[in-house]
Amino acid sequence: MVTITNYKTRKKEDGTKFYVLELQSGIELIHSKATGHYYATTKKCYIPATFDESVCKSLRGTEMSGSIQKVECEPYDYTIQDRGELVTLNYRYEYKPDEATEEYLLTGSSNCETILT
Question: Which superkingdom (predicted)?
């Protein structure tokens, strides 16, 4: 399960704005290579939405089936906010619906069938 925790405004190349929903996974315990101790964390990602701001705001706290997965991508630079350290990453996090949801989207909805074929 993932939870919609917030939303953000983004701009397209042509300057028009749209909203993205911030998704957050459940808590995970990670073993630190540096200290040998465990720490609690969550994964976050963003997905574009066609909703207006009031709908995005009302969706905060909504749970959805699926998970947030680590996916390899082209390397990019990222600044760690707390330390101001610039690092190069080659992954990002993406929302993945669970198999039942994905199967429904591909076969169960006539609207989706029309769009996908």
Answer: Bacteria
Rounded to whole angstroms, how far apart are CA atoms 24 and 69?
A: 11
Q: Any alpha helices (H) in the chain, and if so which ranges?
A: 53-58, 99-103, 110-116
Give dist(CA 113, CA 104) in Å, integer. 10
CB 23 within 8 A of CB 5: yes
Average pLDDT, the chain: 88
Confidence of residue 102 (pLDDT cuts 50, 70, 90): low
How far apart, in whole angstroms, are the C-alpha atoms of residue 72 and residue 111? 31
Per-residue pLDDT, 50 = 96
- Decide: 25 and 18 in contact? Cβ < 8 Å: no
The pLDDT assigned to 47 comes to 97
Hey, what long-range contacts does 44-47 have (CB within 8 A, 24 or more apart)?
44/5, 44/68, 44/93, 45/92, 45/93, 45/94, 45/95, 46/8, 46/20, 46/21, 46/22, 47/20, 47/21, 47/23, 47/95
For the chain, give every domain's residue range: 2-116
